[in-house]
Design brief:
- The structure holds three protein chains of three kinds.
- Chain B has eleven helices and 19 strands.
- Chain B is an alpha/beta fold.
- Chain C is α+β, with helices and mostly antiparallel strands.
- Chain C is about 20% helix and about 30% strand.
- Chain C has 19 helices and 45 strands.
- In chain C, helix 4 runs parallel beside helix 5 and helix 14 packs across helix 19.
- The chains are: A mainly beta, B alpha/beta, C alpha+beta.
- Strand 17 of chain B pairs antiparallel with strand 25 of chain C.
């Protein structure tokens, strides 16, 4: 899989590490349950969603990558602080045909 | 009704021809309602159905599977079974599973080729050795078999491993002699056949599209083959758990990842048991058909695609060559990918959910196959009695809030590191 | 040398080079062939038609095809360390001196005892092993399985290390053309003329595909000539790259394709410096699959006899290789290829006894013969008769070769051609998958038992799971199943094809990362110096670190390490600690950032001071520990452990870029920029004073414990000094730019000679930190909190700090949690063992009595006995209690007294001297 790093261009995903879905907001305050939900719960979307990738063997930028988890197609990648607001689905896609085994 | 299997039945079949044999399980059509429905016709779902029928006498139950049974991870794994876990929350559970494996063929009258040729975890440093010693002692304290091997012991078992030119020399290994492999397809088909014989409806090509529930709890399942009324639903959907749980409005501590596995061309016997390499993610065994079955780490990114990319294969082969330099000329025959439900501490969840009547069995990461019998047993216990089985006591959904994680590797809330 | 020509070599035809004759061996006999032959064509030219025995029934087998789809002619190629089992004779380029052997037969190919399996065939139907081998229970592993494992597998892998090397490369193009037949070459030319970057790859060693096999002209030219012409044109286009002998085996994400180039497999061995094979990752903007088609076998009784061949292969052997595959042929087809083949055979002088076309109501019921075809029994117009022949050329038509198109999970489009799928009524075995001996009966049995889905069918019968992955069997199987189910072929579906298209050597995927190059080796700045002093090294991740420095006469490590520790505690010692992670962090918000990333407070950290720092994971567990040194108002140097250097840095970047981008702070990893040495012991100050330039003084008042500073060495080198101590002695860490590290350590050893300066390694480092109760990797397991490790006093517990909130979860505050303790043996002669578990005296060795475990042990030269650290439930409350440290694996049971983890100088006086 090739990640279109906005600084470095198209690079193999071997150069990156990933932290999974983007968009989780770290709570302020000391509400244990809210913090646990932030750390542990995931939407785990089957379809198009946004994730966080770190260009470890390159520019060391954290990126938001919009990628489809069913097809691995990448629709965009931005520095994490220059990510446009999402118009894509944020929930699970309607049940697509999973690829035949 | 499927006939009893034995060498005599084979002879009878040979003499009387094909018509002697019956379908291994009933391909049932859904009824209007059941006492209980299991969603997911993989190893865990089918095992659960079997134990519900056999141990708890529940017959008016069904398994609904969106495709064909055993088409998911039970149909494409590396077949390893072991109970060499470290943590007290895990050890009794996996040992229970091991013991169920040991009598499974007689129990199901199906040759699952349970083969206990040993699982050997190699280590390459003093720190790794100390960690292996800790784990081996934990196993022994739980009455589970474990042996510490030094370099010479390993060399006697596997003389063709690299002991001379290795980047990370083998310092020894932790062996579980009773660990080994089981024929994965046989597990799904064996449980299906036995459950079906006890009256369980196995409903294939039936995808759940909605979970009807109210404040009072679950009311039924909307499926591609119609509405099925029920007040008890057990989810056993592995990598697809989040997609199904979403139908009930639930967010779970799961992330789906691709795990690749590989098989080589069939060879004469080369590897006796199961070996895991300690200086890189790599594990290896040899199937009875002769193919080397091997794999390593998950690819690392979220995926439902059931396939991965080349860098993982390259890493895996590097690990293989580091362990066994003669592997260079052995050829890769086929690769697969499955969808793993990675959890936030690497351990499973067998628990009720906030919705009354909806129960969850998920989070098996890439280690669900060996757990199949105990998972079925404990999930059946929970579904039938409403009580958590003692062996699954640690697998609560709320453990992430309370802090009682069961984290074997100590990697923390990073699903792709477990 | 005037060699007799091979008996079945055609006089006129063939694209082989008859001027180059090669000798080769098969099953110990010597034959001759020509350059341009494959092993298959050369054997055929010599009249050798029996090439192998099938997997299950050990049936005699010959060539079915002329390409990589071949299921039968699998041989063991080469000998010794280069031996390769399961190699298709049809793709082996002949070379002089080639040695090959048939497989899976004993004692010989002609007479194989394994054929007895065929007699027991009715018992060996699909899935038979699931129904038996269950009794007696113990027999599976002891008797049945070993026998099965010995019988399984077709070939033997070499046991020696692979002597050849493999390379890897990347290539990029606008258009990747997979397949260099007529279509592929035309497409490449067109795209090349448009100026596109094109790569054309073909698995064969000659370009042209079917052009080389058919007698029909292309653009008015004989096929081979047309190919030469288009190759000349392609050679003119600099952006077109031709890759012969290259199989594109997989289509992956983002246009990445895996391809395997056989660089020197066609030579007896690689030339010096030449790899055997090369793995290509080809990134293509678009891909054209010009992979042609595979011919479908027809299904009838005993359709696997040597001499039953695909008609297209017959034409290939005639025209490309100049070989006569038989003397008297029958042709059998459901399409026009039958008539074409018959004409080609006659033109080559082969007698064609019959041309059977299913469209004209003729079919073959069964083939006759054993180790060679003798004839066929046919049905025509309702009547059966026998025809003598030694060659049956059959064609079920061409099946598009779509493997790569389905690698991404899309299903192959439904086959809508009109084909003949009827299977004759016969008691004889009708083979569908030749390699796994799967017959029509097996498929119908599977259906009978409810394995109706294609997936189940395949797994139950093992159809399509052999080394040919169903290339010649998948379609026939689907058709038979569809017929039996009364469904259309399109409804039945298909199984998914996956990489690799044909098997690929594992060595190609590993490339150069073998042996010592499995992972990079990272050397510290003082490595050469340490090596010269006889250091023994240990792996620490990818680093090599000096573990201990034995001197002459010391023949066990414990003696050496004890001496090193004593030398440090009584004099001065130096240890290379360059591998620790270092991060240079600056900015107006640096303090605010540090106070969120670490558990500690930093507001109060003065310029010129260090602090021990604890980094928590967001779930409250300790992730790493290190130091933070304040070199300036907004300038910090942060250290991490060696193991977590990369992870901690990534985490810091996450906190900075994702969590708190509003904080104005910048940082970069400088781990490899600084050589750093620990200088420890009562004489440390004296030693360092000799290298530090005036006016800097290390006198205690001016440079107290935990001070830090930039400074200059007497020789002018920039340096940094940190007064931190892991050993518990008066100690400093001195850092210089990395390329000055070796010079510095030399300088320190010269300067400290009269002070008895000693080199010490990671073992002694470990002993001393255990004596002082410092936690390290063995205690930072990812399961321990600051509370568990007795470090709660460092935690400032601000909500916004990473890990702060979840550290307060109930389970993480339970006093029953395992917490850090020290332990010493009651009997001071006894040794301690890491990994032992704590059990009460008098209790059984069971899990219910398990209360913790020993994390680290060391022989303490300072105390004269073994000591350890451990994690024990309610640990701090139990000092003075006597427990057993039990190691069941190695048979140790040692009485230990629980104590404070700090064994030496608990008040820290020696540190502050």
């Amino acid at each position: 899989m090739l990640i279109p790093c906005p600084y470095c261009g198209l690079r193999s995903h071997e150069e990156f590490t990933t932290l999974g879905e983007a968009g989780r907001v770290r709570p302020s305050g000391d509400d244990l349950q809210a913090f646990a939900d932030y750390v542990y719960l995931r939407n785990n979307v089957a379809g198009r969603h946004r994730e966080l990738w770190f260009h470890a063997a390159g520019c060391h930028a954290w990126l938001t990558v919009e990628r489809d988890t069913l097809t691995h197609l990448i629709h965009g990648a931005w520095p994490v602080n220059e990510t446009p607001t999402s118009e894509a689905h944020t929930g699970n896609e309607p049940a697509n045909e999973a690829p035949a085994p | 009704m499927s006939r009893r299997y034995s060498i005599l039945s084979l002879l009878a079949g040979a003499l009387r021809g094909r018509s002697y044999w019956q379908p291994a399980w009933r391909d049932a059509a859904p009824k209007a309602g059941y006492d209980l429905v299991i969603v997911g016709g993989g190893g865990h779902g089918l095992a659960t159905a079997y134990y519900l029928a056999r141990v708890h006498g529940m017959r008016n139950i069904a398994v609904v599977e969106k495709g064909w049974i055993g088409g998911g991870n039970v149909g494409r794994n590396t077949t390893i079974v072991r109970s060499n876990y470290l943590l007290p929350g895990n050890a009794p559970f996996y040992e229970h599973s091991m013991q169920l494996w040991e009598t499974l063929e007689q129990e199901l009258n199906y040759n699952a080729m349970v083969s206990q040729r040993g699982v050997l975890n190699l280590f390459h440093s003093d720190a790794q050795r100390d960690a292996a010693v800790r784990r081996g002692n934990a196993m022994r304290l739980h009455g589970i078999d474990a042996e510490l091997l030094d370099t010479r012991d390993v060399q006697r078992l596997y003389p063709s491993f690299d002991f001379d030119n290795a980047r990370f020399p083998i310092k020894g290994g932790l062996l579980q002699p009773r660990g080994g492999t089981v024929r994965h397809d046989a597990v799904a088909w064996g449980y299906a056949r036995a459950a079906s014989a006890l009256g369980v409806d196995i409903i294939q090509n039936c995808e759940v599209t909605g979970i009807r529930h109210s404040d009072a709890g679950v009311q039924g399942l909307e499926t591609t083959r119609g509405l099925i009324a029920t007040q008890r639903v057990g989810l056993a959907c592995a990598g697809n758990t989040s997609r199904v749980a979403t139908l009930a409005g639930l967010r779970l501590p799961l992330e789906s990842h691709v795990l690749q596995a590989f098989v080589s061309e069939a060879l004469k016997p080369l590897i006796l048991g199961v070996v895991t390499f300690g200086a890189g993610h790599f594990y290896l065994s040899q199937s009875d058909k002769g193919g080397l079955v091997f794999g390593g780490d998950i690819d690392g990114y979220n995926s439902y695609a059931q396939r991965g990319n080349l860098p993982t294969l390259e890493d895996v082969c590097e690990g293989g060559m580091a362990l066994l330099p003669a592997l260079g000329r052995v050829r890769l025959l086929r690769s697969w990918g499955g969808v793993m439900d990675m959890s936030m501490d690497g351990s499973p969840i067998i628990d009720r959910t906030p919705i009354d009547g909806l129960y969850l069995n998920a989070g098996w990461c890439y280690g669900g196959f060996k757990a199949t019998p105990a998972s079925g047993w404990c999930f059946a216990h929970l579904l039938a009695t409403g009580q958590t089985h003692t062996h699954a006591a640690a697998y609560r959904l709320d453990r992430f809030s309370t802090g009682h994680m069961v984290d074997e590797k100590g990697q923390g809330p990073f699903p792709n590191r477990h | 040398m005037n060699l007799k020509p091979q008996p079945f070599r055609h006089n006129n035809c063939g694209l082989i080079d008859r001027n180059t004759t090669m000798a080769f061996q098969f099953d110990g006999r010597t034959y001759h062939g020509h350059a341009g032959d494959t092993l298959a064509s050369a054997l055929l030219a010599n009249g050798v038609r029996l090439l192998g025995r099938s997997f299950k029934y050990h049936r005699p087998r010959g060539l079915l095809s002329a390409g990589s789809e071949e299921p039968n002619a699998l041989v063991e190629l080469r000998t010794d360390a280069r031996r390769e089992p399961n190699t298709r004779a049809t793709v082996i380029e002949l070379f002089d001196g080639l040695e090959a052997r048939s497989q899976n037969r004993w004692p010989s190919l002609q007479f194989d005892l394994g054929a007895i399996n065929g007699l027991l065939a009715p018992l060996f139907g699909a899935g038979f092993y699931y129904k038996t081998f269950m009794w007696p229970a113990a027999f599976w592993e002891r008797v049945y399985e070993p026998l099965i494992r010995r019988a399984a597998g077709l070939g033997r892998a070499a046991m020696e290390e692979d002597p050849d090397s493999y390379e890897k490369a990347w290539a990029f193009c606008d258009l990747l053309v997979v397949g260099g037949g007529e279509t592929g070459l035309r497409a490449a030319l067109e795209a090349g003329r448009r100026g596109e970057r094109v790569i054309v790859a073909d698995e064969d060693f000659r370009w042209g595909g079917r052009c080389l096999a058919e007698s029909t002209p292309v653009d008015g030219l004989p096929g081979a000539q047309w190919v030469e012409q288009i190759l000349r044109e392609l050679a003119q286009l600099p952006e077109v790259m031709l890759m012969p002998r290259t199989t594109v085996f997989g289509a992956y994400d983002s246009g990445v394709h895996g391809a395997l180039e056989r660089v020197s497999d066609h030579l007896s061995e690689p030339l010096p410096g030449q790899p055997r094979q090369r793995l290509w990752r080809i990134v293509a903007k678009s891909t054209l699959l010009a992979t042609g088609s595979i011919e479908r076998p027809l299904v009838f009784g005993d359709n696997d006899r040597p001499g039953v061949m695909l008609a297209g292969a017959v034409r290939t052997y005639l025209h490309r290789y100049g070989v006569l595959p038989g003397e008297r042929a029958v042709v059998y087809a459901d399409n026009d290829n039958g008539d074409v083949t018959a004409a080609n055979l006659r033109a080559a002088g082969i007698d064609v006894a019959a041309v059977l076309d299913t469209r004209r109501g003729a079919s073959v019921v069964r083939a006759l013969g054993g180790t060679a075809l003798r004839g066929v029994e046919i049905s025509e117009g309702g009547r059966t008769r026998r025809i003598e022949c030694d060659l049956l050329a059959m064609s079920g038509g061409w099946m598009p070769n779509l493997a790569l198109a389905t690698h991404h999970g899309s299903k192959a489009p439904a086959d809508t051609g009109t084909r003949h799928f009827a299977v004759p009524k016969t008691q004889r075995k009708c083979f569908v998958d030749f390699q796994h001996d799967v017959t029509v009966d097996d498929l119908l049995l599977a259906r009978q038992e409810g394995f109706t889905s294609v997936e189940h069918l395949k797994r139950y019968t093992t159809l399509g799971m052999a080394t040919d992955q169903g290339k010649t069997s998948n379609l026939n199987a689907l058709a038979i199943v569809a017929e039996a189910a009364g469904k259309a072929l399109a409804e039945v579906g298909s199984t998914r094809l996956r990489p690799p298209y044909t098997p690929v050597a594992l060595g190609a995927f590993a490339g150069h990362h073998r042996g010592r190059h499995f992972r990079p080796t990272r050397l510290t700045p003082s490595h050469a110096w340490a090596e010269a002093r006889g250091a023994v090294f240990v792996e620490a991740g990818n680093w090599l670190r000096a573990q201990y420095f034995p001197t002459t006469g010391e023949d066990d490590w414990l003696t050496t390490v004890t001496r090193e520790v004593q030398a440090v505690r009584s004099g001065v010692g130096i240890c290379d600690v360059s591998t620790l992670g270092k991060i240079d962090l600056q900015g107006p918000d640096a303090v605010a950032f540090l106070e969120r990333v670490y558990a500690n407070r930093f507001q109060s950290l003065a310029v010129g001071r260090c602090r021990y720092a604890l980094m928590l994971r967001e779930d409250g567990m300790v992730m790493d520990d290190g130091t933070v040194a304040r070199l300036g108002p907004q300038r910090f140097l942060v250290t991490t452990t060696t193991a977590n250097a990369v992870g901690a840095y990534q985490h810091l970047q996450y906190c900075h870029q994702v969590l708190w981008p509003e904080l104005d702070v910048q940082f970069i990893s400088v781990t490899e920029r600084w050589a750093q040495f620990s200088v420890a012991g009562p004489n440390a100050r004296q030693l360092l004073q000799r290298v530090v330039a005036e006016p800097m003084t290390l006198e205690n008042g001016a440079f107290p414990y935990l001070a830090c500073s930039n400074f200059i060495l007497r020789n002018g080198t920039q340096a940094r000094l940190y007064r931190v101590s892991f050993s518990g002695e008066l100690a400093y860490e001195i850092a210089v730019p990395a390329d000055g590290g070796e010079a510095l350590i030399n300088q320190l050893f010269v300067a400290g000679e009269d002070l008895g300066v000693v080199a010490y390694g990671t073992e002694a480092l470990g002993v001393m930190r255990i004596e002082k109760g410092h936690v390290a990797g063995n205690e930072l397991t990812g399961h321990t909190t600051a509370f568990d490790l007795g470090l709660q006093r460092l935690v400032a517990a601000r909500n916004e700090a990473v890990g702060s909130v979840l550290a307060r979860r109930p389970a993480l505050l339970e006093p029953t949690r395992p917490q850090l303790v020290g332990l010493r043996p009651v009997n001071q002669q006894q040794r301690l063992y890491a990994g032992s578990h704590f059990l009460p005296q008098g209790a059984a060795n069971t899990a219910q009595h398990d209360t913790g475990y020993v994390t680290s042990v060391a022989y303490s030269p300072s105390l004269g006995y073994w000591i350890g650290l451990g994690l024990l439930e309610r640990g701090p409350e139990r000092h003075g209690e006597v427990l057993r440290a039990v190691d069941l694996l190695r048979g140790h049971d040692v009485l230990v007294e629980i104590c404070d983890p700090v064994f030496l100088d608990p008040a820290g006086e020696r540190l502050r001297v």
